[in-house]
Design a protein that fits this description.
Length: 132
Amino acid sequence: MVQFVDEPPRRTRLAGDPAYAEVAEELMENPGVWALAIPSAGQATSGQIRRGDYRAFRPIKDWEVTHRKNTSGLYDVYIRYVGHEMARLGFGNDKPPAAPSSTFPSDVIPESDILIPPDLIPEIQEDGPVEE
């Protein structure tokens, strides 16, 4: 049945959600690491973050977002802060974590996604690693 109205309700803006500001801040403290940032959300949430609908996740090029359906039928939103400097160095834009095999994902972050700070990587010369 159609419902007639004088005007549609005013559109709400998502930009200032304070809970997401706290999530974004925590992710920025751990750059390059995937996190189950928003459990049991609606499917649209990851798209809203990807589009920049939430101020906390701007600029959009600094964030990678995906979602996985959980056992309750809702979606767990996984987010990784790559930041403009990390993206410039070639980090990010690789495949997101695999879907968890159980209700408690202990293997969400693949070992290949663990970043090693550049100062911990030994320098390589033409004849092999640098002797210390």
